[in-house]
Amino acid sequence: MKTSDIYILCIEDEHEVLDAVVRDLEKLEDQFPVETATSAEEASEVIGKLLEENKKIGLVLCDHILPGENGIELLIELHKNEKTHNTRKVLLTGQAGLDDTVKALNQARLHHYIAKPWSKEELLEVAVELLTDYVIEQEENILPYMSSLNANRLSESIRTRRSVSDG
Fold this sequence. Notes:
Layout: E1 6-11, H1 15-24, H2 26-29, E2 34-37, H3 40-52, E3 56-62, H4 71-80, E4 88-93, H5 98-107, E5 112-115, H6 120-138, H7 151-166
């Protein structure tokens, strides 16, 4: 399986939690390289570096409470940036109140909310579905992703694309 230029970015200031998130996403890492950051500032640097290298950020899993700028503000910035507007955004937190969650949904176009503690199965399932959405929407050739993402949805997308372009 070839590594793609679509990255997963995990932003979490607690190292044990960050390690657990990365470990839970291990199944996807062969195809989707995982980058990490422990603050919004560090995440912005990682994002800038990846974009400079013409890489794509397909999925961001972000904690709410971070040193400096909070995770929701970072997710809003990602949504406003043309190059990361389509990135799938997940708030992974145990501390976001209703107001912050609504703000993330409305202003950052949050795709999913996962409460801590999470289960590995839930995290992986959400990651696979959101990356499947991203690939269907953003990639011309989706065949290379059949083995790691939702093959049924990818197949359906291939059939639909074909029938539209064959007409």
